[in-house]
Structure to design on (149 residues):
């Protein structure tokens, strides 16, 4: 399966705040917890995940190149990316990049004068740009949202 990104979709610059109950308790897997008894605060997801609304965009991931063996680093097909263009990309960041006019999402490798874009899926080789290819780091992925499967 090849990989594509749908977007960018601009974040609303003045979103209506939507404070949802925040339960500040780690939820143990496999052990029931009456979490509603522990609700202490309310949180708006825009405030938590969108520090720069004017520079934040959403993308929808299409493809399996970022599905990897490490669950915390794996971005599933259909996930919504939150991308911050105000943040400077550094080695190890997951970035939305534009290569020859096409968007892609990959992990940035930038060490010892070498630059590559790495998939999380080991079936995909690193993208090392040729001399005539053009790369733009469009933004840094700060979070993603995926529906449970």
């Amino acid at each position: 399966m090849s990989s594509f990104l749908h977007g960018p979709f601009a974040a609303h610059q003045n979103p209506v705040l939507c404070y949802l109950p925040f339960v500040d308790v780690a939820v143990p897997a496999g052990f029931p917890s009456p979490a509603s008894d522990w609700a202490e605060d309310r949180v708006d997801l825009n405030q938590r995940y969108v520090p720069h609304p004017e520079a934040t965009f959403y993308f929808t991931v299409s493809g399996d190149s970022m599905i990897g063996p490490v669950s915390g680093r794996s971005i599933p097909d259909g996930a919504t990316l939150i991308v911050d263009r105000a943040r400077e990309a550094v080695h190890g960041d997951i970035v939305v990049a534009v290569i020859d006019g096409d968007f892609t999402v990959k992990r940035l490798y930038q060490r010892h004068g070498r630059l590559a874009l790495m998939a999380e899926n080991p079936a995909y080789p690193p993208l090392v740009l040729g001399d005539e290819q053009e790369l733009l780091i469009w933004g840094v992925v700060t979070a993603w949202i995926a529906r449970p499967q």
The chain has a mean pLDDT of 85. Strands lie at 4-10, 19-22, 41-44, 56-62, 80-84, 94-99, 102-111, 114-118, 135-145.
